[in-house]
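hey
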């Protein structure tokens, strides 16, 4: 796809760069006017091709890829709104926002339907699941743009790849409910509030009864795979992956796996009960 690789963005030489909050892995992301500049990465063209597809489908909840600037950085459109910080503020914990995140992920999947990254493939599948769509796979509060209390955009598609709708939606729920052990929860949350928020997310996502009953074991299996991937990336890629591993993310993932299995009956009851 030569057009994509040849696409260049020429900005004004006097534009001011404003450093944006660093992600868990990618640093050096800046805002320049109504654009975002990000370091070019091996998966950049695969992401760019996917963003082009979403634009053709009329999906408004993702940035547009504009090309590479004179410094070789990827240039994307800036989506106006707020994103959560490292410590989630109360304004990002409302039920309406939670449901809107689920709907935004559903809308993404609708727009992504039928897209297959043949010319610009992603590094590899996220799992052994049958491929349904290209998903975001990292819908954290820090990667969702919020306006007027509702989710309007997704940013940071670095982990995007071929997956299933349910896995991508579960991943978003894991971060937004959130699904984790009590000792890792935000102050003020308990099991009851987690289960209530999980039901809100499931209803807005349109999960089937079968998916709801499968969620605890599905999530535990996903946690086990996540632990293995995180360990591999920490040891072989380093950088932010190694930092997160050193900070104990592997232990958090293990505790999530154990929590899901220990609360299987309560989770299923909350998801399928009237």
């Amino acid at each position: 796809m030569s057009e994509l690789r040849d696409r260049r963005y020429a900005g004004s030489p006097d534009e001011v760069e404003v450093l944006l909050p660093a992600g868990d892995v990618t640093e050096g992301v800046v805002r320049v006017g109504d654009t975002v500049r990000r370091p070019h990465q091996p998966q950049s063209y695969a992401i760019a091709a996917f963003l082009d597809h979403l634009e053709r489908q009329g999906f408004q909840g993702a940035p547009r890829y504009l090309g590479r600037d004179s410094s070789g950085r990827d240039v994307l459109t800036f989506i106006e709104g707020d994103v959560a910080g490292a410590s989630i503020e109360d304004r990002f914990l409302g039920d309406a926002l939670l449901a809107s995140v689920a709907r935004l992920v559903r809308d993404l999947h609708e727009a992504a339907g039928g897209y297959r990254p043949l010319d610009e493939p992603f590094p590899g599948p996220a799992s052994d699941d049958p491929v349904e769509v290209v998903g975001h796979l990292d819908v954290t509060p820090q990667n969702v743009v919020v306006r007027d209390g509702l989710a309007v955009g997704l940013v940071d598609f670095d982990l995007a790849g071929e997956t299933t709708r349910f896995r991508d939606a579960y991943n978003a729920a894991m971060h937004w409910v959130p699904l984790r052990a009590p000792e890792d929860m935000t102050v003020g949350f308990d099991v009851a509030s987690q289960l209530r928020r999980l039901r809100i997310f499931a209803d807005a996502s349109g999960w089937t009864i079968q998916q709801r009953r499968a969620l605890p074991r599905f999530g535990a299996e996903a946690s086990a795979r996540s632990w293995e991937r995180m360990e591999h990336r920490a040891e072989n890629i380093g950088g932010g992956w190694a930092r997160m591993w050193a900070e104990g993310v592997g232990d958090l993932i293990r505790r999530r796996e154990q929590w899901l299995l220990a609360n299987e009956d309560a989770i299923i009851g909350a998801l399928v009960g009237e």
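Strands lie at 17-19, 30-32, 35-38, 65-68, 74-77, 133-135, 144-147, 150-154, 161-163. Residues 209-236 form the longest helix (28 residues).
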